[in-house]
Amino acid sequence: xxxxxxxxxxxxxxxxxxxxxxxxxxxxxxxxxxxxxxxxxxxxxxxxxxxxxxxxxxxxxxxxxxxxxxxxxxxxxxxxxxxxxxxxxxxxxxxxxxxxxxxxxxxxxxxxxxxxxxxxxxxxxxxxxxxxxxxxxxxxxxxxxxxxxxxxxxxxxxxxxxxxxxxxxxxxxxxxxxxxxxxxxxxxxxxxxxxxxxxxxxxxxxxxxxxxxxxxxxxxxxxxxxxxxxxxxxxxxxxxxxxxxxxxxxxxxxxxxxxxxxxxxxxxxxxxxxxxxxxxxxxxxxxxxxxxxxxxxxxxxxxxxxxxxxxxxxxxxxxxxxxxxxxxxxxxxxxxxxxxxxxxxxxxxxxxxxxxxxxxxxxxxxxxxxxxxxxxxxxxxxxxxxxxxxxxxxxxxxxxxxxxxxxxxxxxxxxxxxxxxxxxxxxxxxxxxxxxxxxxxxxxxxxxxxxxxxxxxxxxxxxxxxxxxxxxxxxxxxxxxxxxxxxxxxxxxxxxxxxxxxxxxxxxxxxxxxxxxxxxxxxxxxxxxxxxxxxxxxxxxxxxxxxxxxxxxxxxxxxxxxxxxxxxxx
Length: 570
Description:
Elements: E1 19-22, E2 31-34, H1 47-53, H2 64-67, E3 82-83, E4 89-91, H3 98-102, E5 110-112, H4 115-120, E6 131-142, E7 165-171, E8 177-182, E9 196-200, E10 202-209, H5 214-221, E11 231-233, E12 239-241, E13 251-257, E14 263-267, H6 270-275, H7 284-289, E15 295-307, E16 321-326, H8 328-331, E17 344-348, H9 356-362, E18 368-378, E19 381-384, E20 389-392, E21 426-436, E22 442-446, E23 455-458, E24 464-467, E25 472-474, E26 478-482, E27 484-488, E28 496-500, H10 503-509, E29 529-541, E30 547-552
Parallel strand pairs: 5-6, 8-13, 17-19, 28-30
Antiparallel strand pairs: 1-2, 3-5, 4-14, 6-7, 6-9, 7-8, 9-14, 10-13, 11-12, 15-16, 15-18, 16-17, 18-19, 18-20, 21-27, 21-29, 22-26, 23-24, 24-25, 27-28, 29-30
């Protein structure tokens, strides 16, 4: 296309599409124009003359449903739209003021029934005046993006860590899903779950597919199919219900609420309310029987051991945490299910956002009951991943789900070490000492007041030990020992079982083997019987030899401090 310098090219494009086709009379091929970064220019010529010479084509409203030939959405015309001011709404206050929103969102903002229609109408405008009716299926938090911090200090009731993104999983009347990221904190946002809402002032972050975001669609699959027939516009522009089973969604849109513009309000829509599907609670016995099926699951469970032990709430980088859980269905004896475990391991990955209440509960050496919502069941494991929610007992009320809640009155029973014991689980083990790993055996002094093991020896004070935490001399240090032994276990007679012992077990084992000079003879403890130990399975190897590495652990004590004692229900 040859044009002279300073030649003005004026194109009057029709439709919403920002990619236009330009056909030149003498051109050999059409030209595709990207009009995303173009702006409108007002001609200096007489407006009447310009209008007569250049009459723009009628503006067409082309939606994504029409582009992708989705028949049951292509007839969603303005007749199905209603005005926001005509609905009874309840606003959920954000961190920005209502006056700022009214600068952009005026009364009479049209509400559509389709997320696809709303996305198709976004265009390149800095904000969108078209809203959509949705039901909020889930409210959760995702790890924050780099440079994204959510201001929460001024809002009461926030239970997530700073920097986490609050998200809503919404669904429209046609079954389409969308994930809305709130760029600012919103007070009482968790009360939106199960409510029908109007959503306005959003932008599209990305189109999510099953390949790109499998975790999101594993959650969507738990909400599909719908509990009631979905809507579809008919030829006479009235909404009908889909009578056939539709395939699960292949894509959805991840949206972001624009600062000072994004708004979500509770509305009255009985049809959308019926679309809400709360998590289906299961007992651990049912979950164990279907571990091979990849799906989300929700359950109550008591945590009896965790690894690693959390010592502080100030976790700048959350690590992977293993929780060993049980419930009454696992603790009940059933001779017909010999391989049913007494406990199950749950892996809490670093992508799972834990609230301050959960972290506080995990730092206390008492058993605690959690509600695990939408945990991922995959490859024979239960994992808390993105979009999984953990709630401590004080933040939830037991629901009448048919699972059956009862007190765990008797002490927790563990499985004895056997051929089916997996890694990262706990078991009980007993046997006789067959050997001692002398290369890893050592002892060290600790402070008798605070237990600090980093004591300083001061030559100027005659070699006495000094505690930097207590800031005083340690005259009677406590001697701690590290000892690993090999056991002959009747339940695993064909493999080597190596156990790292706790201090109490070491003292009990060495009680009759001490010499007058304080040393110990290895032969004196060989053949000694070891009592029933509670152990965490660190590793299982089969080459070059079959060996199981265990570490003796202390289960969370059932006795809580007097000010925190409460009955734990399962």
